[in-house]
Amino acid sequence: MADRIADIWGARTPHAKDTPWPVRVDMHLDQGLAEPDVDRWVQSACVLCSNGCGCDIAVKDGRVVGIRGRAGDVVNHGRLGPKGLYGSWRRDDADRLTRPLVRRGGVLEESDWDTAMDGEEPDVQQHTCQVLAERVKRQSAALTPIVERYGEHREREPERLHATGLESTRSGAVGLLRDLQDLYTLANLTDITWTVVGQAAQGLRDRELLDVVSSCEKDTDRQLAWLCTRIKQAAPQALIAAG
Ligand code: SF4
């Protein structure tokens, strides 16, 4: 049979208007096997796209060894595309991935499902948190000369938003979700505060403060984006799996 990677559509089967679409049974078996070697054919359908081409799966010695299109199927009249022909039936193939791969430093490495579904390795998450925390320290340092110039007038009112619960972390999946939500609330307060301070800096025509606000706003945007992603990842486990 033709190499269906090189010749994706396979041999043409032209037919006249209002005449039946000709049958063309495509088949692919493990190397070295021919049709008489197959012990039995099991009816199935390719599920690699919405066409759902009808097919028969070849079984030999209890192993899946190939596929052929089903001639009587109204969808494909025996034809199979390259995906169905070469990929759909390879349950027992040595190259089949049976464990998830996670990209670390640009390289795909085997991992486990919990890690892969969580989206990030624990050490990667820790590294991300450290990077974001370092940026906050840089913000604080950048604001120091400005605070010295204008002075500091602490108001009691915003202190209520410094969630005391964040001094320690909650436990469990729901606790993690609530910690992340608290952080998101605080990051939003920081975000709108940069807007307020930026407006003041414009009024004062304070170029230095405007530069600090512009840089810090970007950092806060990154914090919010990361927190939003983590909340989306943590929510299903906290609200569905844990329940
Ligand atoms: S054989 Fe190709 S066209 Fe048919 S269902 Fe599979 S992927 Fe889709």
What does the model show?
There is one protein chain. With 243 residues, the chain is an alpha+beta fold. It is elongated, with a radius of gyration of 30 Å. The chain is built from five helices and six strands. α3 runs antiparallel to α5. The strands form two sheets. A four-stranded antiparallel beta sheet has the order 1-4-3-2. Helices cover 44% and strands 13% of the residues. It has helices spanning 82-86, 113-118, 122-150, 172-204, 207-241, and strands at 27-29, 40-45, 54-60, 63-69, 101-104, 107-110. The two termini are 53 Å apart. The chain folds into two domains: 1-92, ADC-like domains (N-terminal domain of TfIIb); 113-241, no CATH class. It binds iron/sulfur cluster. Residues 46, 48-49, 51-53, 76, 80-81, 83-84, 88 line the site of iron/sulfur cluster (SF4).
Short description:
It is built from 5 helices and 6 strands. The chain has helices at 82-86, 113-118, 122-150, 172-204, 207-241, and strands spanning 27-29, 40-45, 54-60, 63-69, 101-104, 107-110.
